[in-house]
Amino acid sequence: MSHTAHIPSHRKPRRNASKTALRAGVAGGVLSTIAVAGAAGPAQAEPVTQTIEMPTITSGLSTAVAASAQATQQVAEDLQTQAQEDAAAATAAKAAKKAKAEAVRKAEAKKKAEAAAKAKAEAAERASRSTARTTLSATSGSSAGTAASTTSSSSSATGSAAAVIAFAQAQVGDAYVPGGTGPNSWDCSGLVQAAFRSIGVDLPRVSQAQSTAGTQVSLSNLQPGDILYWGSAGSAYHVGVYVGNGQFVGAQNSSTGVVQRPLSYDPPSGAVRVL
Known about the structure:
Blueprint: H1 17-40, H2 59-151, H3 159-170, E1 175-176, E2 185-186, H4 188-197, H5 207-210, E3 215-217, E4 227-230, E5 238-244, E6 247-253, E7 257-262, E8 270-273
Parallel strand pairs: 1-2
Antiparallel strand pairs: 3-8, 4-5, 4-8, 5-6, 6-7
Helix pairs in contact: 3-4
């Protein structure tokens, strides 16, 4: 055995041939590049321009801004519409208040006019009666006095006449109303018509027609149940019912209502007998 057999070798291991060739190629390429760059000389430095990109509004942000503007405009339009509606409502309320006040005024004026017309009609009726009484006093005064004395003993009525008289006397105290036909207010012809209707006798509605509805009789020959009239037959302005004992019942006027009075209170012009 050799005396150097156990001494380790100090030689470096051989490198892989392929790795060695690769490294040699790379080194050569680098050196070549440096050589070319050096031969070309120092390069002229170019100015550097820095570009700043501005932020852009994305489509989502643009849509949001547009929606916000539209909402603001809608609110403004709504407020304007509400203001117009409030103004219209105030105008309508003012017009309604004015119309109501005008209607109340007209109603009051109409009521006053009706009251004045009624008072005028009553005054005319009283004046007409006064004139008629003055005109007829000379001719009817003595006849009425004679009738009162003649019929004073005929105070009791029977049959249909008694029923007519009872009905008329039952209404004494009721109000006088032009055109009234009962049951609590009457005019003169309405009371006479209702009294005879209670026994089934149908008389005309107005005093002019009632003054010719039966047989004309003298005031000196009156019987209970006869119809008295004031004025001329066929154009009488007032009627009543003779109840005997020189008394009559009639719806006189708005001041007295339905009353029972002696013939001397308002002497009649004539009489008709229906029963």
